[in-house]
Amino acid sequence: MDKPLTKNIEEGRAPFNFKQYEAAGGYDSVRKVVTMAPNDVVTLVKDAGLGGRGGAGFNTGLKWSFVPAPDGGPRYLVINGDEMEPGTFKDRLLMENDPHLLVEGMITTCFALQSSCGYIFLRGEYTVAEERLLAAIAEAYENGMLGKNILGSGFDLDIYLHTSAGRYICGEETALINALEGKRANPRAKPPFPQVSGLWGRPTVVNNVETICNIPGIVANGVDWYQGLGLGEFVGTRISGVSGRVNNPGCWEVPVGITFRQLLEDYAGGMQDGYELKAFLPGGGSTDFLMPEHLDLVMDPGAVQKAGSRLGTSLIMVLDDKTCPVGCIRNLIKFFAHESCGWCTPCRDGLPWTEQMLDKLEEGTGSLKDIEILKEMTGYMGIGNTFCALAPGAMEPLQSGLKYFIDEFEAHVDHGCGYSK
Amino acid sequence: MVKITIDGKVLEVDESKNLLEEVLSHGEDLPYFCWHPSMGSVGSCRQCAVIEYANDEDERGRLNMACMTSPREGARYSIEKASQFRAQAIESIMINHPHDCPVCEEGGECHLQDMTVMSGHNYRRYDGKKKTHNNQYLGPFIGHEMNRCITCYRCVRFYKDYAGGTDFGPQASHDNTYFGRWQEGPLESEFSGNLAEVCPTGVFTDKPFSKHYVRKWDLQTAPSVCAGCSVGCNTNPGERYGTLRRVVNRFNDEVNGYFLCDRGRFGTGYVNSDNRIKESMTRKSHDADPYLASTEEAKAQLQAMAGSAIGIGSPRASMEANYSLKELVGSDNFYAGISALELGMSKQILDIYGSRPVNVANVVDIEASDAILILGEDLTNTAARLALALRQSVRNLGKQMARDMKFPEWQDAAIRQLTMDRKSPLFILSPHSTRLDDIAAHVQIGSAADSANIGFAIAHEIDSSAPAVKGLGKDEQALVKTIAAALKEAKQPLIISGTGSMSPALIDAAANIATALNTEDKKANIALITPESNTLGLALLMGDSTASLDDAMAGESKSAIVLENDLYRRAATAHVSAFLNGIDQLAVLDSLKTKTGEQANLVLAAGTSFETSGTFVNYETRAQHFYSVFKPEASIRPSTFWLSDLTLAEITQACAQSIVGGEGMSHLTPDAEDLVDMKGMKVPRQQHRYSGRTAMRADINVHEPKQEQDEEGIMSYSMEGISALKDATVFNTAWAGGWNSNQSVFKFQSHTGGALKQASNGQCLIQSTAKDKTWSEISETNDVASDFQAFPLYHLFGSEELTAHADAIQEKATGAYIALNEADAEKLGLQASDGVTVINDGNNSGSVPFIIRSSIAPGSVGISVGLAGLDLYNVAGSTLSLEKDNTWTAPTNWKMNNIIVSDKGAV
Known about the structure:
The structure holds two protein chains of two kinds.
Chain A: H1 18-23, H2 28-33, H3 38-48, H4 60-65, E1 76-81, H5 90-97, H6 99-113, E2 117-122, H7 127-142, E3 147-150, E4 155-163, H8 173-180, E5 204-208, H9 209-213, H10 215-228, E6 237-243, E7 250-255, H11 260-267, E8 277-281, H12 301-306, E9 315-320, H13 325-339, H14 345-363, H15 368-380, H16 390-404, H17 406-415
Helix pairs in contact in A: 3-6, 3-10, 5-6, 5-7, 13-14, 13-16, 14-15, 15-16
Chain B: E1 2-6, E2 9-13, H1 19-25, E3 49-53, E4 62-65, E5 76-78, H2 83-93, H3 111-119, E6 142-144, H4 154-162, E7 169-171, E8 178-180, H5 194-198, E9 204-206, H6 207-210, E10 220-221, E11 224-225, E12 234-240, E13 243-249, H7 262-266, E14 281-282, E15 291-292, H8 295-304, E16 310-312, H9 319-329, E17 334-335, H10 340-355, E18 359-360, H11 363-368, E19 371-375, H12 379-382, H13 384-393, H14 396-404, H15 412-419, E20 426-430, E21 442-445, H16 448-462, H17 474-489, E22 493-498, H18 504-517, E23 525-529, H19 535-542, H20 549-554, E24 559-563, H21 573-581, E25 585-590, H22 595-598, E26 602-605, E27 614-617, E28 622-626, H23 639-643, H24 648-658, E29 683-684, E30 715-716, E31 763-764, E32 788-793, H25 807-812, E33 818-820, H26 822-827, E34 835-840, E35 843-852, E36 860-864, E37 879-884
Parallel strand pairs in B: 1-5, 16-17, 16-24, 18-23, 19-20, 19-22, 20-21, 22-23, 24-25, 25-26, 29-30, 32-36, 33-35
Antiparallel strand pairs in B: 1-2, 3-4, 3-5, 6-9, 7-8, 10-12, 11-12, 12-13, 14-15, 14-26, 27-28, 28-31, 32-37, 33-36, 34-35, 34-37
């Protein structure tokens, strides 16, 4: 099976430098793309059916097509490398171990968008990725893949790396843009969408790292090749992973279309001895719990949605039978409450209150009334009620936890948490 | 307009507005926090939630914020169905809010209280700890109690986004978001007082008010007009127990909208000051001991002077007071009480307003302007409210971009993001840097004469029939072309100048530019700023007379009546003293003790604008009536009482008939018959909840005194009378059921944020109907053969006579100083904070500290105006030389740190 995302990655070996990367077929997509019409590239990516890998899964080419026609002013590509979703570490793998792939993807994408400026907004803690990306960008400049008149095509491009000061909310694309401009990382009102008025008020596309790493392969090898990578009706590959008490936690490039069970058993080696799977979060801390009966679902946004959750980043977090679900949820809510930007009321003031009630339950001072209010909170902070998706995301593990583990919540009322810590 | 249905009710609404303002305009109650009619929507508080239905079949609908929703034709909404969400939102807003309403100054006029009740949140379910914050010292104007904050972001949206402040903002995040300065210290914005009104609860409070606080409902109030400058902002001052407690904004869409400057809000301490003249005094001669005069005795003595005395009027006294003095002494004996230069410029402005094809800009016009040129007027310090308006004008480019992209103007944050730093062009020609430089496309530093030359050249560039200027340099010529092109291209160009530079040529240049811009379908806006609250009114009263203070002082009269005027603030000490020493009979009517008053034989205790009624005429010639807020001690009387036997209404009418355009002044107050069918009732100055009426004087006498009577006006000093909800022709305090805060003003507006339904906006007395273009000739500007060309430097805090007496203003004020640029300072061997002696025409004008300001034209010296310590007046064109004074030491109260903030680096 082709693994376009991780083909150059080998554990224990330093990432390819420019020469090695080029020898392995790297930068082919750039050589090809400069001979194409930009709009044809957009159509190609749209036809390939690549879904955004940041969690929402929106068709990447379609997103690009919303950018208005060039008006002579600047337009931007911004790479969202602020990977802060709990339990998610796929972009780190790509940026640390094959930085040229991202750079190549950005060049190809910028050509399609007719943009001459790209930014990588990188999570501040990713210092290794920072170092390696900077080196790759420098090499790309040295070898004429960045800068003026790339490959004699008349196409100019500069790429800048920006390391974040570190807020989860910077993963929200408009908050990211604010942060990049040096402003408070609060989300912006939409419309206008970034494609129309984004960075510095100009047309801007914000894409996830993994999404853009798919572009070189698609452009170099075409739609049919890309679609052939998936299983059955599904297209392409993606990085999925597992954390929790499994035998072999990690992340891997998998064909789109495998089931959760395949991921958990074939890749992660199943549960550790003495632990049983109680539930799992399918794609990061802001997705609803799925139960063991959902293991045979295909890892596809549509299928997961039908089961009441979201595929999200497709890196699953395993909850075992020796870990308290209430404590797990409290831990997540504590994170989200702390990461609220403070802009809108439900998130800013609702999440800390939610956290306080979960604390009480864990300590054994909670009441049934608290559980009632927790249920109320999941509606209050539901989708559409808040300014951005942070609080609704935070409510997902809580609302599904209250559905699947209500007995355990209620058991906490009199006795607190009975799990050993 | 589109038709929508809300909870079954069909409403016709404006689709260019958001649903919240439309719902409010139709009288519905919908709670909100972060939205503000002047600041638009950002959607942060989530309080104005409604349900929007996709179509007729949709039963469930989706929750949307009304403030972020454009009403759609035929759409169906429900306020009712979102009530649970709104209750949840207010409940979570309130989890950290302290239970301190009984000791909170906002209590009783708290928007948060109102919205909490409206949203139906009664019992607290949150039982955790509340967040607490440290409070900051923010200077003499604003108190800070962060624990009350509900994080609606209104403060920062006003302070930074709307008013351009840079020293205050949001810090930290999540439920620990903090609004303050980066470190403790006085707020630098000249508009900080608005925080107290913009904040929906008691985080930011009026600090001077705190020192003698009473509840809103215990204040006796009346519609008033600020006497702090020539803008004439509408205010609503409040009194209790005979002292003036505070001033808040009174909405007038054409003058001040929702906002006041800090001089107007915090500059009223003089009313309660120890420096007040509380009783009339008389004495036989200059050196005899004064004794108290009874009201009758004092008035009789004053009236007895009528035959022989000259009268000196005042630009800070009402039309009625000035007119009464004029009538008492006779037109031939009436002098304007301002210098010949100032009177000349004021009349020049009246002439321009009347004879040129221009539109005199009010605040609405200013905010709608899309290209602006300022000639030599430091607006932030001479007419601050207009500087705030200009910060909105430069956003018009962004608003146009938004319209082009088809998103609505109320999307405040979105438009700011779209526009970034792009602004409508603002050009400033000035002898020094100003607070508006940060929004200017270009600032040209030069003397008034240079600026006037550029101005005349711009007029000629726009319309070649305007007189041409010779000898402009290459750079100036390029600048002239740039500015002319921007003004010509604009849909609504605006020219601002005024008396600030004391340069008639500059005003002429402004007039020529505005005239040149006139085309068949476009009239340029012009605003010419005058120094005081009634300067233009005084100039109107003078009619054809040019009798100025200079003329009065040059005369031979032995008897003079001076109305509300300290002559020592207008001319050199030696000059005024020589004049007053030659006067045998000097009567002074004033509210404050002045140096002029010290020399009087007869001092009459006059009421301030808070204790009297009358008319001021602002920079636009807008006549506005102010009502007395309270009756002071019986010994203090309005100047009109001392000067005339007529009633105020009779004086107003007589005055109106005596001046050009006076017709507009004669209908500023309603006749009793005009009010609703409440015959015999007046408009109450006290709220229906006014408390303690029978008890407040019980420590003096247990008998309830008769209510004070207002013999002359439409208002009464009582709680009873016509409710504003029935008839708001006299719009006093805004209040409506469930809306106890100032937010209730929308109940009195024809449309939320728009004009008031009933109350008078005042009347502009002069409105040009001229079609033909006439030009001012270019006056020969003779190069002043002096070491340094002087220009005036104004201070919002300190340059105005009355407000400078307020404690809070004094804390922000500085002593007199002069300023040079660095190179000139070096030439003179001066260092910042050295003492410098100013020699004017060979006379020593005193020693003052010297500072360096970065942007001052070479060869120019800035002279602070109206600040204590420098005996130098009408400086423009003066021959000045400067000498270092090695013996000078700084006075203990001299504060350097209050000098223009934007120029701080150079101090």
